């Protein structure tokens, strides 16, 4: 797996701050920070400089969001608190890095600084700082890959003669036809390999397209910055949406796709999508995932984070990637990111993973962080059976039950770059069904915007219960919820009618 280089940041940052007190040692001392395995190895015998994520101990106060009147105000309050806290608490570290001849690039959605080209001596000094909580090697990590390898594109893409069966199976078509709800007024964020935005099923639903001209300013962000040694088919820091792999285009298709000519592949064709590319030809890093999530909370023009606009935040973020423990992710690195998203009133939907069929196979972040995400398992919509590859609970990180719900994820036909279509399988294909379902709920009942707990309850409580012969983690497969299907298979029609009835 090739390495990529992370370049841009979200708050500025060559670090020279004047008048800031530095609470650390100037010399290499006894490590007090939690160190990932990769950092420990680099400190002992590393020769090449490493990119390191430095997580600080102090977390921002997110309580201002609790007093916000609506979702827009909620996002703005959280964003303001995060930015101000990062600026204040990171200043001593950034000044110190400048004195060491190093530079830091700041994040605020989690209190962290990315340090490029850190040598073993600098790592040891960082590990001894009293304001540092954890050091993590910022190395390439994979997305939640397909169980059968690369996607298979149809050699002669067919035009569907009807709505795709997986969409009908969820009850979404009943929402369209009986309730006249298709997702209008909702924005879904795609954090993935990018998007082929001109695909006929996607272009009409892109927030950056008004039907005549395109404006990508607040609707697209590229977190992949020049640095790969082999080049990239899309390039780097691209100004318009591009997909260098195909996976992101496919998942966006399942959320909103409809070309108006027979290819009805999406759950919420009335919703709008925005996108952030977080992988370089299928390879990403923790910093790129964090960067995209931060951008979704307050999109900004390329290279101008000072112009971030929380009013343009996504309502839902779909995530089909996984960071493994072997690559440094233990869960605590992402908890603050996910808490910030939740406090802002944004629903974070995550694929549960493709490591089934054994128990305890929900093993990769962020799907394992049960309280902060809505995790999704995969079923075959042709027979309602759980997909063999779908990861089962309990979560490795917190030992809680998972997934939350299940959705179609086996041989799902959706959009693919080149204006074509492909059939792909994975919990990566299941999670966008849930993102689309939430878009339908929000469109039907706009007062639910920002109310993550209520939206989660609606999705889980209205799912069609499914039992299993498999018992995991002391939870019987005959229980509802269980560690195979979660609360069951999503039912968008019941979710929307329940939401309307509760108002």
Task: Please provide a written account of the structure.
The protein is α/β, with parallel strands linked by helices and 503 residues long. Helix content is 26%, strand content 16%. It folds into two domains: 105 residues, Alpha-Beta Plaits; 338 residues, Rossmann fold, CATH 3.40.50. The protein is built from eleven helices and 18 strands. The strands form four sheets. Strands 8, 9, 10, 12, 13, 14, 15 and 16 form an eight-stranded mixed β-sheet that branches. It has a five-stranded mixed β-sheet with strand order 1-5-2-4-3. Strand 3 and strand 4 form a beta hairpin. Helix 9 runs parallel beside helix 11. The radius of gyration is 22 Å and the shape is globular. It starts with 33 loop residues before the first strand and ends with a helix. The N terminus is likely disordered.
Secondary structure elements and their pairing?
Layout lengths: L33 E2 L1 H9 L4 E7 L14 H29 L4 E4 L4 E7 L1 H8 L4 E6 L2 E3 L9 E2 L11 H5 L2 H8 L7 E6 L27 E3 L24 H10 L15 E6 L5 E3 H12 L18 E4 L12 H12 L3 E5 L22 E7 L4 E2 L18 E4 L3 E5 L3 E5 L2 H18 L7 H10 L30 H10 L2
Pfam families: Peptidase_S8
Family: Belongs to the peptidase S8 family.
Protein name: S8 family serine peptidase
Overall shape? globular
Q: Into which percent range does the helicity of residues fall?
A: 25-40%
Given helix and strand content, the structural type is: alpha/beta
| N/C terminus separation | 50 Å
**What's the CATH superfamily of the largest domain, by name?**
Peptidase S8/S53 domain
In the CATH scheme, the class of the largest domain would be Alpha Beta
The name of the CATH architecture of the largest domain is 3-Layer(aba) Sandwich
| Count of individual helical segments | 11
Describe the sheet with the most strands. 8 strands, mixed
What is the CATH topology descriptor of the largest domain?
Rossmann fold
Mind telling me the C-alpha Rg? 22 Å
Please count the beta strands (DSSP E, at least 2 residues each). Answer: 18
Mean pLDDT: 88
Q: β content, as a range?
A: 15-25%
